[in-house]
Fold this sequence. Notes:
The protein is an alpha/beta fold and 330 residues long. It contains 10 helices and 16 strands. The strands form 3 sheets. The protein has a 7-stranded mixed beta sheet with strand order 6-5-4-3-2-1-16, with helices on one face. The longest helix has 11 residues, at 274-284. The radius of gyration is 21 Å and the shape is globular. The structure holds zinc ion (2 copies). One zinc ion binds at residues 37, 89, 91-92, 234, 293. The site of one zinc ion has 4 residues, from loops.
Amino acid sequence: MWRWAGNEALARPPLRVPPAYDKVNAMIDLCLLGTGALMPLPERRLAALLVRVQGRLLLIDCGEGTQVAIRESGFSLARIDAICITHFHADHISGLPGLLLTMGTSGRTKPVRIIGPEHTQKVVRCLCVIAQTLPFELQFEEIGGDGYLGDFQGARLQAFALEHTIPCFGFRLTLDRPGKFDPARARAAGIPTDFWGQLQRGETAQDEAGQTIYTPEMVLGPARPGLSIAYCTDTRPTESIRDAIRFADLLICEGTYGDPAKAEMARQYGHQTFEEAARLATPAEVKRLLLTHFSPSMPDPEPFVPLARQIFPNTSAGHDIEHISLRFAP
Ligand SMILES: [Zn+2]
Ligand SMILES: [Zn+2]
């Protein structure tokens, strides 16, 4: 049954020991579930992102109808282990009770992590008055004043402050990559081949007494670039965001308005135009910019994409149920 933590002190953002996983061939799969702001439309679901790492799923945001989009994506609700909430506007959280109920009626018993701004536990508790019979535990991790650093399936999960009309956070997920394995060094050090696999994965090797006998540094070259994605909505552009998203392989960023004539409106409501998103991506040196969170007043974002491309060429407008896979460079 669902347990409330009540007034107990919330656990600080944990730094977990990453589970062993195949760091050699790892990849991140994403599905941009929706691209809409404010309200779901017949042809456009609300902005949310599903991320798969090592076979398990992380969901970022859960507005009305997100569980339907997840079904459309082909991913399984049963594999969602963590849900990040950017902020408490309805288009980012109101789908949560229904999603959790469906996960419960699908037989889930494993706990679900919920990561979000301060008061996430209280807000989710209020929303879930209409979903009181969950057969699994909710584990809350609230983002403190000094940010958040946790892990998801061995990937680093970070939250960083955005600038919106209420407290709001972006998320970055990074899969680190160990250096290249050098068999010649392993042979020269007399390391039996039985240990090569775990050293290659960045793990230490121990003898029967638990003493470390070989370390990855003995056989691995310098660390290589990993994979990194950043998700930023809803927000104005700020310098601190630029630092938080630096060198990301993929930046999924809000561009609520495409028309530059809506720039003042964007400022007023704590949002961005396409051009502002592109100006954020350029100095941050991200590899690719995918725009999302489109205003219902903009039925087709495509005509405005060239404006952003003049500033950051590798820009595209996201589509609902858009699948993207990121792999380590060969
Ligand atoms: Zn929004
Ligand atoms: Zn908002």
